[in-house]
Design brief:
Length: about 180
């Protein structure tokens, strides 16, 4: 990795942490630069503006696996497990947390969240369930998974945060299974 790539990565890490902790409005270029241990002009050099930095920080790849080989009965648990792993995975890659926190108060972040689910979750569900079932279920799946993320990682409700991941999967899977069930 070149020095420029390292600097850009450090800026993005710092920005994601700031946006996750403070939201868009309270995050400043100076604060991000201080966290990245660089001059604020370097943030502007690489990203041009706070809005463009925010856009870059909102880049989310859910890294969804191919669910087509997953038996239908196991799909709900696989989805819950994947999202838990994604949320709890690499702490330096908290773009999904930034996006969730920001989507509540920032229309661009809300739009990006809709784009992520439309471009990543809906096609993964369509491949596994077929387009008709996926179209019916995608919004409710998003609501359930985002609700889990909100309560476990942002609101940090003790009843949810105290559960080990296996307990979350076991408790959450039946609800997701009902959402994904074939109405026929």
């Amino acid at each position: 990795m070149t020095q420029g790539e390292q600097t850009k990565a450090a800026i993005l890490r710092a920005a994601r942490e700031r946006f996750a902790a403070q939201g868009y409005e309270r995050t400043t270029i100076r604060g991000v630069a201080a966290d990245a241990e660089i001059d604020p002009s370097m943030v502007m050099r690489y990203f041009g503006s706070k809005e463009k930095l925010f856009e870059a920080a909102l880049a989310v790849n859910l890294r969804l696996p191919d669910f087509t080989a997953v038996p239908a009965a196991e799909l709900p648990g696989a989805l819950v497990r994947h999202f838990l792993d994604r949320w709890e995975g690499d702490p330096a890659d908290d773009a999904l947390l930034v996006l969730l926190r920001s989507a509540v108060t920032n229309e661009r972040a809300a739009e990006r969240m809709r784009e992520v689910f439309a471009a990543q979750v809906a096609p993964a569900l369509a491949a596994a369930l077929g387009p008709d079932r996926a179209a019916r279920a995608a919004g409710l799946v998003a609501a359930q998974l985002l609700g889990l993320g909100l309560t476990r990682y942002l609101l940090r409700l003790p009843a949810v945060t105290s559960l080990p991941p296996d307990a979350v999967v076991a408790g959450f899977t039946p609800a997701l299974a009902a959402t994904l069930a074939d109405p026929a």
